Amino acid sequence: MYTPKSIMSSNTRFETWSFDKACMRMDENTLHTAGIVVTVDVGAVDNSDLIIFGIYGITKDVVGDDVPEPFLSGKAKDFNETHGGVLSDMMIESYKTFKHGGAIGSTTPTLLVIPAGRVDKKNKHTKVCMIS
Question: Beta strand 50-54 with 126-131: parallel, antiparallel or unpaired?
Answer without folding.
Answer: parallel
